[in-house]
Amino acid sequence: MNGYLHDESPTVEQLLDDAALMSFEHQEHSIEVLGEHRWQVSYEPPRFEFFGDRPLSCTRFHVLGTAAPGPQSWLWSWANNDWYPPEVTELARSVRDYGLRHGISALHMAEVAFAELPGAPTEPNRVTWLMGELAKAVSGSWTWYSCDVGGGTRLAVLIEHPDLVPPAPDLPRTTHVLNGVFQLGLPDHKRAIHSYGMQRGLNPTFNEDSSKLFLAGPGVEVTIAFDENGLVTAMSTVHGAESRP
After folding, report:
1. What element of type H or E holds 185?
2. CA atoms within 13 A on the CB side of 9
3. How far is CA 148 from CA 54, 69, 89, in A?
4. How far is residue 233's CA from residue 68's CA, in Å, rounded to a whole number?
5. If residue 235 lies in a helix (H) or strand (E), which one and from where to where?
6. Residue 230 has pLDDT above 90, yes or no
7. DSSP 3-state assignment of 105?
8. 106: closest CA among 73, 83, 81?
9. DSSP string, 128-153
């Protein structure tokens, strides 16, 4: 469970902000690694495999649940014990427990209507992405994959493999990811960037009035300025490079 969430009860929207940049970085990396591919899943023993440009066999993966277009609802994997072995639903159960502790119904109700989720999405792929983001923020497992399992229903999983872990932060990578706040259209840049800094070990530190945030790590020093709404107004590095939205 992610340590930076330990002492608070965030809203669903805050969890989405917390996941946004770390997720963005991992998803870009997984696309680069996998290239064109096909997938296959088996449960005895659990194995999620990719075939194509870069074959990978993932023996550790986590089934989150399914989004079905007919009932317009999401069903968590732990509510479908007859279908999945317990080892692939353990993470989803930990997300459920977090939801129970913090009163987040979308995380602990067995079945969740699409209309009850932020933005009231209608497409199953959007719902699997959304539930994946929430599970990432709570669990700290970051690489999401969604597959069509027939009839328009989508399966959402989080997969683990050493090749899917992005390289250590460097200055070009970090500034690229931070600029993702604009590409993703996030409502709270300040929280998203602070969360990313915590997750990436970049020692995020605010100035006295929280109008600026400093990130620092090996080869990385970035200063980000925010307006009164928590949106980025400027970003500069120790080498003097500066970018503005």
Report:
1. none
2. 9
3. 21, 12, 19
4. 40
5. strand 232-237
6. yes
7. helix
8. 73
9. HHHHHHHHHHHH----EEEEE-STT-
Mean pLDDT for 86-110 is 96
Q: How far apart are the first and last CA of the chain?
A: 33
Q: Classify each residue of 49-86 as buried b or exposed e, where b means 16 or more C-beta atoms within 10 Å of its C-beta.
A: bbeeeeebebeebbbbbbbbbeeebbbbbbeeeeebee
CB contact at 8 A, 67 and 154: yes
Give the number of C-alpha atoms closer than 13 A to the C-alpha of residue 66, restricted to the C-beta side: 18
Per the listing, tokens 């969430």 go with 5
- Judged against a pLDDT cut of 50, whether residue 110 lies above it is answered with yes
Structural element, H or E, at residue 41: strand 37-43
Instruction: Locate 133 and state its tokens.
Output: 């983001």
Query: Which pLDDT score is estimated for 240?
Result: 45
- Encode pLDDT of 10-43 as tens digits: 999 999 999 999 999 999 999 999 999 999 999 9
Nearest to 46 by CA among 13, 16, 83: 83
The torsion angles phi and psi of 50, rounded to 5 degrees, stand at -115, 135
Place of tokens 């307006």: 227
pLDDT in tens, 204-219: 999 999 999 999 999 9
Predicted TM-score (pTM) of this structure: 0.91
CA dist 34 and 51 (Å) reads: 9
Q: What six digits make up the tokens of 137?
A: 């923020």
